[in-house]
Design brief:
The chain has helices at 2-12, 17-42, 45-61, 64-68, 93-116, 123-142, 146-164, 171-202, 207-212, 214-218, 223-237, 246-249, 255-261, 266-276, 278-281, 285-306, 312-334, 336-340, 347-381, 397-411, 417-431, 440-443, 446-470, 488-506, 508-523, 545-562, 564-567, 580-602, 607-628, 644-662, 666-686, 690-711, 724-749, 764-768, 773-805, 810-816, and strands spanning 73-80, 85-91. Helices cover 72% and strands 2% of the residues. It has a two-stranded antiparallel ribbon. Among the domains are: 644-719, no CATH class; 760-806. The model is unreliable at 1-5 and 8-15 (pLDDT under 50). α17 (312-334) runs antiparallel to α19 (347-381), α17 (312-334) packs antiparallel against α23 and α29 packs parallel to α33 (724-749). The protein is mainly alpha-helical and 817 residues long. Residues 730-811 form the MrpA C-terminal/MbhE domain.
Length: 817
């Protein structure tokens, strides 16, 4: 039935499938708060949510044969065409890999969560956040417009914040969510600046158009700054050194969140950006050294720190950091192929990108299975502390099998898919030594050395994960629960992932032809023959250097694992006071204390002080700019003559304003304020703006009557006892503020440094359908402002409705508690 439903949808929405894939999770997320009470009475809410990623996975899978033939699918929907911002979806070989991972792993994660999360949890919140994140990730990988991509990019940060902080009653969960959002949003803003620079350099927001005009863009002065800023965004999202510190703290999220966000989706968003922009920045020395260098440092630092962890999820967190660094470094090495262009001799360098794509998929399979395995151990045993675990192999044989398959694949051992991509990784770092550009001949030897040392630590922490959890002596007195095998429902998802781990090892070229080859065409769009970029994947290449490196990893890694107790105390040499985490915490504490001190200095509770701050800043900024730019130019000869009745009105307004300051009663002050308002209305009449005059008269009459009615019941004004120095200071500030407004108003008439805005409204009838420019401005801009105000009120109203109408009923609250 599910497949028939998917086929029906594809048949009816063939042209909008990608848009449908992006919007469906958002629509379902919006419906969950409204329907969850009815759905929960019928079955677990997760069963209904599960249908969303399954349908989307089937929809995308139908495109695999066509994508493998080299086809791409592009659809554009107008959004803000006046600013060249349109909702353009782009489905090609690269985006479909990520789309299949997002929906495929998402399906398994939701199935796993059905059995992992208790019905006492706030499931409607969890699945709503999860669908929001799924839709945002699909929007990132399918968007061709930079601004649309950035919008979804930041939405992934917001939704991941909600997922990490799902158990918001825990302080660690809230802290981890804040750290993740702070770092990734900072990177997102940096990436936005890079996108805007690319727009200035290329004149378009379309990634496809930027790639097609890359030769022109490379000559622009903003090319390298854009490169650096975009990389900051990619590095923060993909937890690259030194921005990796948010990922271990994010492990406070429920295990399904970790399995989804931190192995297959969110952390891969930065990888996607690097792969997507490789045709633009690839071949640049800065891009090569940053992507490959930071990737290798991240690979080593993550694997080195994973060994010291005592919590299973923390170990997997640092292993994820390490594996992300491996993938990132491979894309950096593969960027050399863009420097040489298409040539038979450069194919060896492009295979690094192929290995990156291959390991991207492999990592999602074995790391997703390992996260679910750790969740099972925690769920059934009650702890993730390695020091309390051991001897679980006989009691949890299926979970042990999952750990062995996932762990050995992560360590790069056969017959698992991680072995194939790890061998290709070794081949890439060995081949890069032969490149005679970018000064690689001096530093190139470090690539295979760092890769090999990091792989040894990878082997060690993989053995720790398996050996310290399932081998050794059982310690039941240290466990919170009596250990037993998980229910079959919780085992299905990791078993499926383990089957993929083994299947890919034996049939890797099916994946290479239908999935990886089209993605290579996206990364190297100028290469005419894509088939040559896709090597034949084989587990055996004879006795070569890569195989010897693998044997060295196994032998040395096994020795280090067996002697772990003797050398692990060396980690104590690295003080916790000099870590990036401590620096981050010191920075946050310093910022909070500094902002508190600054706020306490100016938030005195005195309204007069606040006006002083506002007016001083206003005078300094506005008057300072006009004086600095020599804009204070006055040519009164060109002005219209001032009539005597206009002078009378001016003096009346001045008299009323000055008298109002010295008025001793509220009613007197209010009447004088009314004189000011009515005088302005007379000016509108004089300047032939009857509609404005009528509006001013009505508003002034109503407000004067209301104020008089209210002030009748208030006590008289008390005289101010301010010191004379304060009064003089306030008077000087008031005079300067008034003089600034007056002088700026006079100077603007003769300001010619910019084109007058009046030219924009010369064609008011065609632009807005109004022949009166004043009415057009009011109708367009004031109406737009009112619309935004209504939207704000609508959002506030929805919030109030949610808090009141959707709160749990008494019996439901008792059930959840």
């Amino acid at each position: 039935m599910l497949i028939r439903w998917a086929n029906l949808i594809v048949g009816g929405f063939h042209l909008v499938t990608v848009l449908f894939a992006i919007l469906l999770p958002f629509v379902c997320a919006a419906l969950i708060p409204l329907l969850y009470r009815r759905l929960r009475r019928m079955a677990h809410l997760g069963w209904f949510v599960l249908s969303v990623p399954i349908i989307l996975f089937i929809l995308l899978a139908r495109y695999i044969p066509q994508i493998a033939e080299g086809k791409t699918f592009i659809d554009t929907y107008e959004w803000i065409p006046s600013f060249n911002i349109n909702f353009t979806t782009y489905l090609d070989g690269l985006s479909i890999i990520f789309g299949l991972l997002i929906t495929g792993v998402g399906s398994l994660v939701i199935l796993y969560s059905i059995f992992y999360l208790s019905t006492k949890e706030s499931l409607h919140h969890f699945y709503c956040y999860l669908l929001l994140f799924m839709g945002a990730m699909l929007g990132v990988v399918f968007s061709d417009n930079l601004m649309v991509l950035y919008t979804f990019w930041e939405l992934t940060s917001v939704s991941s914040f909600l997922l990490i902080a799902f158990w918001h009653h825990r302080k660690a969960s809230r802290a981890g969510a804040r750290k993740a959002m702070t770092i990734t949003v900072f990177g997102g803003l940096s990436m936005l600046a890079g996108f805007l620079m690319l727009y200035v350099a290329s004149g378009t927001f379309s990634i496809r158009d930027i790639v097609s005009n890359v030769e022109m863009i490379r000559e622009h002065t903003l090319f390298v700054p854009a490169l650096l800023l975009i990389l900051v965004g990619a590095f923060t999202k993909s937890a690259q050194f030194p921005f990796h510190i948010w990922l271990p703290d994010a492990m406070e999220a429920p295990t399904p969140v970790s399995a989804y966000l931190h192995s297959a989706t969110m952390v891969k968003a930065g990888i996607y950006i690097v792969a997507r922009f490789s045709p633009v920045f690839g071949g640049e020395p800065v891009w090569f050294w940053l992507v490959s260098g930071i990737g290798l440092v991240t690979l080593f630092w993550g694997s080195f720190n994973a060994v010291r962890q005592t919590d299973l999820k923390a170990l997997l967190a640092f292993s994820t950091v390490s594996q992300l660094g491996l993938i990132m470094s491979l894309f950096g090495l593969g960027s050399v192929g863009h420097y040489f262009g298409y040539a038979e001799s450069s194919i060896i360098y492009t295979q690094a990108s192929f290995a990156a794509l291959f390991h991207l998929i492999n990592h999602s399979t074995f790391k997703g299975a390992l996260f679910m395995m750790v969740g099972i151990v925690d769920h059934e045993v009650g702890t993730r502390d390695i020091r309390r675990l051991g001897g679980l192999m006989a009691l949890m044989p299926v979970t042990f099998t999952i750990a062995v398959i996932g762990g050995f694949s992560m360590a790069g051992l056969p017959p698992f898919n991680g072995f194939l991509s790890k061998e290709m990784f070794f081949a890439a770092v060995l081949a890069i030594r032969e490149v005679e550009v970018f000064s690689i001949d001096t530093w190139g030897i470090l690539f295979p050395v760092v890769a090999w040392v990091a792989s040894i630590f990878t082997f060690v922490y993989s053995m720790i994960l398996i050996g310290h959890t399932f081998f050794g002596k059982l310690q039941p007195y240290k466990l919170d629960k009596k250990p037993h095998e998980a229910p079959i429902g919780m085992l299905i998802s990791p078993i499926v992932l383990c089957l993929l781990v083994v299947t890919i090892f034996f049939f890797p070229n099916v994946l290479g032809h239908y999935i990886l080859q089209p993605a290579m065409a996206s990364i190297y769009p100028t290469f005419p023959t894509v088939s040559e970029l896709t090597p034949h994947i084989s587990a055996w290449h004879g006795v070569n250097t890569e195989l010897l490196m693998t044997l060295g990893v196994i032998i040395i890694g096994f020795v280090l694992f067996k002697t772990l107790k003797s050398w692990k105390p060396l980690y104590r040499v690295f003080s916790q006071n000099f870590t990036f985490n401590s620096y981050y915490n010191h920075l946050i504490n310093f910022s909070e204390k500094g902002s508190m001190k600054l706020t306490n200095r100016y938030m005195s509770g005195n309204l007069t002080h606040y006006f002083v701050y506002i007016y001083v800043f206003f005078v300094a900024l506005i008057a300072g700019y006009f004086i600095w730019s020599d804009a204070m130019v006055f040519e009164f000869a060109k002005d219209s003559p001032v009539e005597s009745y206009e002078l009378v009105l001016v003096f009346v307004m001045m008299f009323a304003a000055i008298w109002m300051v010295f008025a001793k009663g509220r009613i007197t002050a209010m009447l004088l304020n009314g004189v000011l308002g009515y005088s302005i209305a007379f000016f509108f009449v004089i300047f032939r703006a009857p509609d404005l005059a009528l509006t001013q008269l009505v508003v002034e009459s109503v407000t004067t009557a209301l104020f008089l009615l209210c002030f009748k019941y208030l006590p008289d004004l008390l005289p101010e006892n301010s010191r004379m120095r304060v009064k003089w200071a306030n008077a000087i500030i008031a005079i300067f503020a008034g003089a600034t407004v007056t002088l700026v108003g006079l100077a603007v008439v003769h300001y010619d440094r910019f084109e007058t805005v009046a030219l924009y409204f010369n064609d008011a009838y065609d632009l807005a359908g109004g022949s009166n420019i004043v009415n057009t401005i009011l109708g367009d801009f004031r109406a737009f402002d009112t619309m935004l105000e209504v939207v704000v009120l609508l959002i506030a109203g929805l919030g109030v409705y949610t808090l009141t109408k959707l709160k749990p009923r008494k019996e439901e609250a008792d059930h959840e508690n």
